[in-house]
Design brief:
It is an enzyme of class 4 (lyase). This protein is of the alpha/beta class. 39% of the residues lie in helices and 16% in strands. It has three domains: 3-176, Rossmann fold (3-Layer(aba) Sandwich), CATH 3.40.50; 188-338, TPP-binding domain (Rossmann fold); 362-554, Rossmann fold. A six-stranded parallel beta sheet has the order 2-1-3-4-6-5, with helices on both faces.
Length: 566
């Protein structure tokens, strides 16, 4: 059997359903063979976007995405997605070609130290030295990627191995495709300690992160929160674990909840920069943490705080056991009363913050010549475009921060943003992967113009594979802010003058990003008024516009950063 056939059939019979890559010597035959075997191959324009797309597959589906690249620079470009997967705790397989084994150290085509590079970011690296070993290597790679704290692995395929022949024993899908990873069971005594701490708390709070979303604990979490009436606060990508409009969700009172809670159950989230490292002034100096995580470094050896209770275990199993123990305890402290001062103060803060936010969102555009802003645009999108099951990809600086508070999520794993690593450039790849994984769900990707620029060429991929994604660029002519005009001589007279006077945050003024999509055969529109935006959103929702589509929305380029009211 040819090497490419062994590789393709092994992938076919594994848990991997889709392959993302960019072809070239010597992996092109593998891509053709994958299609022959019935495995979808999605070709990208840049390995960076490709690797980001593959990385989010693990989060969305619970199975690792596969990113396939050529050697040398192709592999190095894909390390961006590998680092992203490692940082976020998502399963991913990077598979790259390399020079033939007999050419190592001789300056072969695209030779580089790929194994050494991958070791920095991967749970395990594999070098295939015989083609017959590939099926078992792939199986071990998938299991390693999924087990304990999920993460990336790397498989290296030397050119001569790809071209070789073998007699590998490729297992049938029934015995090989469903790799069951046993969840980590929590220590019951630790769970009891956590329950006791929650029962004795005066102002308890539960924080749910994307780790909780990854382990699919939304049903158990909902039951726990509704049983105990403890306020719930999601992380940015934890939004949707409980509906944002659930009465026990306190996202609108984020700052107040964090600062005043006395016991905080941290469920699959990290006390990192997103949560002030678990310290004052974001939290009370006397706060006690219960940390639940599959990663011992987060739960036990946390570098920022010393948890009162550390539980290494699966969030779904842990929260279910907590609910059972609280139910069996006959505690008078739980469930919390909505009349309790903790809830009264939270509700009061939610009312103030919500009123402030809605005032910003509902501010009219008095004249068509007035600039739009983030809040007005998001109000339009929320009213006319987003649906209950929409997947919201959100990337940028102000674009992402304000999008988090303006757009409600109803389902888990439905808000995809820059994540733990604050990675810029992920948006388009994420949107493409999300639409591939969930073809019947609406995917809306809202990015700043700078964020869009990282991967704008992938619009061609969306059109090529008929992906009905709505791409929206909030165009303020810059990073954070831009210029209203570049007509001044100091910007236009010479390269040297421009380099000295164009602000580093500025991009070109009024770039027609919609024409990029139009050039590939998709739909594109330039928008500067709310009425036109509302009209187009309604047409998209009614399926009256050919998708994919790109809406290039011009917003106010200058001024201070819009106020975030949470």
């Amino acid at each position: 059997m040819d090497g490419v056939e062994i590789i393709a059939k092994s992938i076919k019979n594994s848990a991997i359903e889709k392959v993302f890559g960019i072809v070239g010597v010597p992996i092109t035959p593998i891509a053709y063979e994958l299609q022959k075997q019935g495995v979808g191959f999605f070709g990208f324009r840049n390995e960076q976007s490709c690797s980001y797309a593959a990385s989010i597959v693990g989060y969305l589906t619970g199975l690792p995405g596969l990113c396939m690249t050529v050697s040398g620079p192709g592999m190095v470009h894909a390390l961006a997605g590998v680092l992203n997967a490692q940082s976020n705790g998502w399963p991913l397989i990077l598979m790259s070609s390399s020079i033939s084994l007999n050419e190592i150290g001789k300056g072969g085509f695209q030779e580089s130290k790929q194994m050494e590079l991958a070791e920095h970011y991967c749970k395990k690296v594999y070098n295939v030295t015989e083609i017959d070993h590939f099926p078992e290597i792939l199986k071990d790679a998938i299991e390693t990627s999924l087990s304990n704290r999920p993460g990336p692995v790397y498989i290296q395929l030397p050119s001569n191995i790809i071209k070789s022949k073998g007699e590998a024993n490729i297992r049938e899908a029934a015995g090989y495709g469903s790799i069951a990873i046993k969840p980590i069971l929590p220590d019951i005594n630790k769970v009891k300690d956590a329950v006791e701490l929650l029962i004795n708390a005066k102002r308890p709070l539960v924080i749910g992160g994307k780790g909780a979303a990854y382990c699919r604990c939304e049903n158990e979490l909902l039951e726990f929160i509704e049983t105990t009436k403890i306020p719930f606060l999601p992380s940015p990508m934890g939004k949707g674990l409980l509906r944002d409009d659930h009465p026990l969700v306190v996202g609108a009172a984020r700052s107040y909840a964090l600062k005043n809670a006395d016991v905080v159950l941290v469920l699959g989230a990290r006390l990192n920069w997103m949560f002030g490292f678990g310290k004052a002034p974001v939290f009370s100096p006397s706060v006690q943490f219960i940390v639940v995580d599959v990663d011992q470094n987060e739960a036990v050896n946390n570098p920022n705080v010393k948890p009162a209770v550390s539980i290494v275990g699966d969030a779904r199993l842990t929260i279910a056991e907590m609910r059972k123990l609280i139910g069996d305890s006959n505690s008078m402290a739980l469930p919390l009363s909505i009349e309790d001062s903790w809830w009264v103060n939270l509700k009061a803060d939610i009312e103030v913050k919500t009123k402030s936010l809605m005032a910003l969102m509902n501010e009219p555009q008095i004249n068509d010549t007035d600039y739009l802003n983030y809040h007005k645009v998001y109000n339009s999108l929320r009213s006319f475009l987003f649906q209950e099951d929409s997947i919201f990809v959100n990337e940028g600086a102000n674009t992402m921060d304000i999008g988090r508070i303006c757009i409600n999520q109803s389902l888990p794993r439905s808000r995809l943003d820059a994540g733990t690593l604050a990675t810029m450039g992920v948006g388009v790849g994420y949107a493409i992967a999300a639409q591939i994984c969930f073809p019947s769900r609406p995917v809306v990707c809202v990015q700043g113009d700078s964020a869009f620029g990282f991967s704008a060429m992938e619009m061609e991929v969306a059109v090529r594979y008929h992906l009905p994604i709505v791409f929206i660029v909030l165009n303020n002519n810059g990073v954070y802010e831009g210029l209203e005009s570049m007509s001044d001589d100091k910007y236009t007279c010479s390269t040297e003058s421009a380099s000295l006077h164009v602000p580093p945050t500025s991009l070109l003024v009024d770039v027609q990003y919609e024409k990029i999509m139009q050039s590939f055969g998709g739909s594109g529109y330039s928008i500067s008024t709310l009425s036109y935006l509302n009209e187009l959103c309604q047409q998209i929702k009614n399926k009256e516009i050919k998708l994919p589509v790109l809406l290039n929305i011009k917003i106010k380029p200058t001024g201070t950063k819009p106020k975030i009211v949470h």
